[in-house]
């Protein structure tokens, strides 16, 4: 099928962030941005022989989720694949897309440990479907007109959070009833992360990060970040990957600090655990970041370099996809 995460030609539809593309009329520069903080040099380099626990081969793997003692992969050619984490073997797969045009496909998968959700591309719109994790049968289909590029579907507090249309609509789907509620956003947004208290969105074109109250659906906080793509949250902090590096905020998007250096970008992913922030990108493969200092503490090497992909912590391992290399890697997070 070709390269994953290919953005199309319409600025409103695919949210290209560069000023040269002419998508944004604002030029916020660094005004009001977070203070810079230097990153550490000479991080430890961990070679593949030390970190690689296993690999799984499947075409076009991207988004990842975990439920029912398995890892699930959303592929860019419209499938969901189930992997046994103990053996790395593919134990099931199912085609989700209904589009007749093979060029119409979508990204997006998520789980709260109780339910499994993924996107399903049609010829005219993109749905979100609930899957039985054991059979991969579609048990519910919701016509939400999902944004193509949203590759992680946060499922928190009984709600699946989806960006709709050109990214300027926030859709919450009740995991029990399948009922959805749509709210307008002030910007066209790109990726989501969520807690029970807030839904965070990176709005790439407008260079804003916003927090939305999940009950009132109103924007309760915002912050300017240059080129924001990925967002992760945990332990009362919010991390955003932007064009200048990683920005750390508190959960109200206050107290900003910029750690200039590597970032995830549109081809990578950002993941937060209790002891580390993880950056996945094509150039560095995988970086471990100290959440207190923003310093790169370990660089997980890959020879030769592979494409970008998503990242997930599950069953004691870190899992990451490489969408152009037909591989999902099982990584020892502390080799």
Please render the helix and strand layout as text:
Blueprint: H1 11-14, E1 35-37, E2 44-46, H2 48-51, E3 52-57, E4 61-67, E5 70-75, E6 79-83, E7 90-95, E8 109-111, E9 116-121, E10 126-131, E11 138-142, E12 155-156, E13 159-164, E14 169-174, E15 180-184, E16 191-194, E17 199-203, E18 208-212, E19 219-224, E20 230-234, E21 237-242, E22 245-250, E23 257-260, E24 269-272, E25 277-281, E26 285-289, E27 296-300, E28 311-314, E29 317-322, E30 327-331
Parallel strand pairs: 1-23, 2-27
Antiparallel strand pairs: 3-30, 4-5, 5-6, 6-7, 8-9, 9-10, 10-11, 12-13, 13-14, 14-15, 16-17, 17-18, 18-19, 20-21, 21-22, 22-23, 24-25, 25-26, 26-27, 28-29, 29-30
Could you characterize the architecture of this molecule?
Keywords: Signal. InterPro entries: Host-pathogen_enzymatic-act, Quinoprotein_ADH-like_sf, WD40/YVTN_repeat-like_dom_sf. By secondary structure, the protein is mostly beta strands. The protein has a single domain, classed as YVTN repeat-like/Quinoprotein amine dehydrogenase (Methylamine Dehydrogenase, Chain H), CATH 2.130.10.10. It has two helices and 30 strands. It has a five-stranded mixed β-sheet, with no helix packed on it. A five-stranded mixed β-sheet has the order 2-27-26-25-24. Strands 3-30-29-28 form a four-stranded antiparallel β-sheet. The radius of gyration is 18 Å and the shape is globular. About 8% of the residues have low confidence.
